[in-house]
Amino acid sequence: MALIINEIFHSLQGESSWTGLPFTFVRLTGCNLRCRYCDTEYAYTEGAPWPVDAVVAHVKTFGCPRVTITGGEPLMQSQTPALISALIETGFLVTLETNGSLDIGHLDRRCIKIVDFKGPSSGMQDHNRWSNVDCLSAEDQVKFVIADKGDFDFARAAATDLLKKIPAGHILFSAAHPLLPVDKLARWILDAHVEARLQIQLHKYIWPTVPRGV
């Protein structure tokens, strides 16, 4: 059975604790959520079928030891766990970006999960699967996209509990570009003494006019 792939490309990681490092990105087609600030709507439906072994072979051609599987929502596709394990067995460090609404408990434990729990401004807050927190290890990361003060207050409250599972450097507060100025989010974090990492979606500052493939 094939995966439906939207794009595969080599770029700098723009988010997470690996910001700035080269990664190969495998973007899968399809998403079960419709966040109001989504910046990858093209991944909802555009894509072509690729067998798992073809994806692994193509990823090898970039000569990069790190891979991020993203979307859309990659866990919508049944073959995603097989792709993750195949890449890890080939020797890649694999991270998975997931929207927090689907079960992560069945994934290869060697995969590093980056779970994006949705705040109120997304319109998708009711889809958060909080039981996924029980599946996190100290290697995993949790991201909150923040568009306004309501999102910040939501993320701050959640971060308090998350610190029991993962370190502060793995709790990511990301300003929804361009809805929230980064300096405002930085000020909120400092004033509230939140133990979280500010991230700025680096790729949007390096390539501000390039909508995909970066």
Question: What attributes characterize this protein structure?
Answer:
globular; alpha/beta; TIM Barrel
Topology:
Layout: E1 3-12, E2 22-28, E3 48-50, H1 52-60, E4 66-70, H2 80-90, E5 93-98, E6 112-116, E7 141-146, H3 149-162, E8 171-175, H4 182-192, E9 197-199, H5 202-206
Parallel strand pairs: 2-4, 4-5, 5-6, 6-7, 7-8, 8-9
Antiparallel strand pairs: 1-2, 1-3
Helix pairs in contact: 1-2
Structure, described:
With 214 residues, this protein is an alpha/beta fold. The protein has one domain: Aldolase class I (TIM Barrel, Alpha-Beta Barrel). 23% of the residues lie in helices and 23% in strands. The chain contains five helices and nine strands; from the N terminus they run E-E-E-H-E-H-E-E-E-H-E-H-E-H. It has helices at residues 52-60, 80-90, 149-162, 182-192, 202-206; strands spanning 3-12, 22-28, 48-50, 66-70, 93-98, 112-116, 141-146, 171-175, 197-199. It has a nine-stranded mixed sheet with strand order 3-1-2-4-5-6-7-8-9. Strand 7 (141-146), helix 3 (149-162) and strand 8 (171-175) form a beta-alpha-beta unit. Helix 1 runs parallel beside helix 2. The two termini are 28 Å apart. The mean pLDDT is 95.
Short précis:
The protein has 214 residues and is α/β, with parallel strands linked by helices. The protein has helices at 52-60, 80-90, 149-162, 182-192, 202-206; strands at residues 3-12, 22-28, 48-50, 66-70, 93-98, 112-116, 141-146, 171-175, 197-199.
